[in-house]
Amino acid sequence: MKKTLPYIAIIGTSAFIGNLLVIGLGFGMYWQTLEPMEFMRQFGIQFPLLLAPTMGILLPAIIATIAMVVNTKGQKTVRKNWVIALVCLIITCTITSVYHLPTNFGFMDMKYSAEVAASKLNMWLVLHWIRAIFVVVAAIFSVKAFQKI
């Protein structure tokens, strides 16, 4: 039982990396091949389908990581690693909340011109890869914390 939460945190964070790779390398590259207006039409169909599995992977990772930060109070080195992992996940969620979600809703509502949509998609992908880097760092620090338990 002692290892259940760290396993959930590590597996969830690692699965989230896979999810981000699929979105970036699969969907993102595909979206860039489309004309901007067609991209927004397809995004409106595809995004809701991506949202549920993404949240189903991310939420257990975040909850387990928070629990590990709380449960390792008094274990300075272990807790520091869990805190770094959590901060990376929080940064990822902040980027998502501040840029990706509002932009996603704009794509779904087709509220952008073709030029603006293309520009926003390019920025969306740049920020997507920045999120992915933070999640990789979170996974690394989760494993480091686990090794010290």
Structure, briefly:
The chain is mainly alpha-helical and 149 residues long.
Describe the structure.
- With 149 residues, this protein is mainly alpha-helical.
- It starts with a helix and ends with a helix.
- It has helices at residues 4-33, 36-71, 76-108, 114-147.
- The chain is elongated.
- The mean pLDDT is 97.
> How many H/I helices?
4
Number of strands: 0
What portion of residues belong to β-strands?
A: under 5%
The geometry reads as: elongated
How large, in whole angstroms, is the Cα Rg?
17 Å
- The helix fraction, in percent, is over 70%
Class by alpha and beta content: mainly alpha
Order of helices and strands: HHHH
Mean pLDDT metric = 97
- Report low-confidence residues grouped into runs of 5 or more: none
CA-to-CA gap between the ends? Answer: 13 Å
Please outline the major beta sheet: none
Provide the descriptors you would attach to this structure in a database record.
149 residues; mainly alpha; 4 helices; 0% strand; elongated
Ordered list of secondary-structure elements with their pairings:
Blueprint: H1 4-33, H2 36-71, H3 76-108, H4 114-147
Helix pairs in contact: 1-2, 1-4, 2-3, 2-4, 3-4
